[in-house]
Amino acid sequence: MVYCSSVCLVRGHVKLSPGTPDPGRLTKTLAYYGAFVGLGLALASLGPTLPGLADAIGASLSSLSTIFVARSTGYLAGALIGGRGFDRLPGHPLMALMLTGMAVCMALVPLCSSLISLCLVFAVLGALEGVLDVGGNALLAWLFPTGLGPWMNGLHLFFGIGALLAPLIVGAVLAEGGSIAYAYWILSALLIPAILSIVVQPSPPIATHARQAGRNTGEHRVTIVLIAGLLFAAVGAEVGFGDWIFTYALRQGLADEAGAAVLTSAFWGAFTFGRLLGIPVAARLRPASILLVCFVACACGSAIPLWSPDLSAALWVGTIIAGLTVAPMFATILALAGEHMPITGKATGWLFVGSSTGGMSIPWIVGQLFESSGPTAAFHVILADLGVGLAILAVFWFHRGRASLPGA
Questions:
Q1: Sign of CA pseudo-dihedral 67, 70, 76, 79
Q2: What is the pTM of this model?
Q3: CA-based, 20 to 30 A from 309: which of 33, 148, 346, 358?
Q4: Three-state secondary structure along 254-297?
Q5: What would the pLDDT profile of 324-350 be if each residue is shown by its tens digit?
Q6: Of 378, 371, 381, 379, whose CA–CA distance to 59 is shortest?
Q7: 8 A C-beta contact, residue 76 and residue 130
């Protein structure tokens, strides 16, 4: 997802200056949804193709996990640069350029013959994804100065749809005897409609608050650090699970390639449904309460396969629970941020440092331990990551409680 993304609302509003409603909001919104389907396709493509890429270049899984570091490093840089760019430049040309670059990178992946070339391509791809992720969220927030809630959750939902489709497409291609190259080229071609839908429309106006609020970012340093830490844990769990479940099922002998692809799609399907459920839940519960339930439930789902590592049913149940409960985390964390700080492209970029670091480090750690300690190390790493998230949530509660005291 992962890095999945949001600049969020709380109870139907965001901290943006009021603006004039854009008469073309619906068509622009649909274009952003299409772009995020493409983002989901790109981000979820690596997991089911990881064993095939390792075979193609003759690399071990532990060494191939360097790709996660390269991609997330690029994503981090893209999020920081993109946040500032969307505060200053027309958004649609930037989004179209990012999608075009992503399509090119996806087409180049199967042509790479070494680990170095793969890392370079994925680093560039990650940077493009980071810019697109930040920009899509900021543009949607500016498009809906009030009543953002359902539209932002819809953006998350369509990302999940793309992430659901990617392993299904890869699995279908492999089941028909096709190569990974064909799978990547199909995914690349599917980005073209999103590019066209963005480029033909004028950009929404930049929010008038953006530069002023950006100068005030320093007032919210502690909040930014804590929110970034929560995003680290949420995205780390999401990407760690989504990108390694395919390989885990294969190595444990619980599925063949087709079955592992279906399992991966089940995770992203549950993820998509979880984001859909998050829309009414967010209207009724406070963000902090939702996060507590999600972190605990996701930890339970991640622990189930450890209780019965040789039982396919345990893996399926744990995968579905984890997908359902990790899904609302990102939007809810940004909703929590929206309660306590103004949201700008610059601030969002800094928050995405946390998400990209989680998406980089957790899958990489899993890769380092996967062969040396066994496949079940994946779930131990994810459980530790979720424990860190719960600890940060407790610190956030304590910090906000102190900040609300008189004289604090």
A1: negative
A2: 0.75
A3: 358
A4: CCCHHHHHHHHHHHHHHHHHHHHHHHHHHCCCCHHHHHHHHHHH
A5: 999 989 888 877 887 777 666 677 777
A6: 371
A7: yes
User: 46 or 295: whose pLDDT is higher?
Assistant: 295
- CA dihedral defined by 322, 337, 11, 35, rounded to 10 degrees? -60
Distance of alpha carbon 265 from alpha carbon 321, whole angstroms: 13
Query: Which among 272, 250, 337, 190 is positioned nearest to 1, based on CA atoms?
Result: 272
Rounded distance between C-alpha atoms, residue 70 and residue 122, angstroms: 6
Would you kindly state where each structural domain of the chain is located, as residue ranges?
25-403
Residue 224 sits at the vertex; the CA angle it makes with 218 and 227, to the nearest 5 degrees, is 170
Mean pLDDT of the chain: 84
Mean pLDDT confidence for 360-370: 90
Residue 9 has phi, psi (to 5 degrees) of -100, 165
Tokens found for residue 398 = 């304590």
| Cβ atoms of 217 and 344 closer than 8 Å | yes
User: For residues 90-120, b (16+ Cβ closer than 10 Å) or e, as one string?
Assistant: ebbebbbbbbbbbbebbbbbbebeebeebbb
The C-alpha angle with vertex 114 and arms to 113 and 119, in degrees rounded to 5, equals: 115
Angle between helices 180-189 and 46-57 (to 10 degrees): 140
The answer to whether residues 173 and 92 touch, using CB atoms and an 8 Å cutoff, is no
What tokens were used for 190?
């599917």
DSSP category for residue 15: S
Q: Return d(Cα 347, Cα 344) in angstroms, integer.
A: 5
Q: Which of 344, 387, 353 is nearest to 7 (CA)?
A: 344
Calpha distance 28→203 (Å, rounded): 8
Q: How many residues does the chain have?
A: 408
pLDDT digits (tens, 9 = 90+) for 13-58: 334 344 445 557 889 999 999 999 999 999 989 888 888 898 889 8
Q: Which CATH class is domain 25-403?
A: mainly alpha
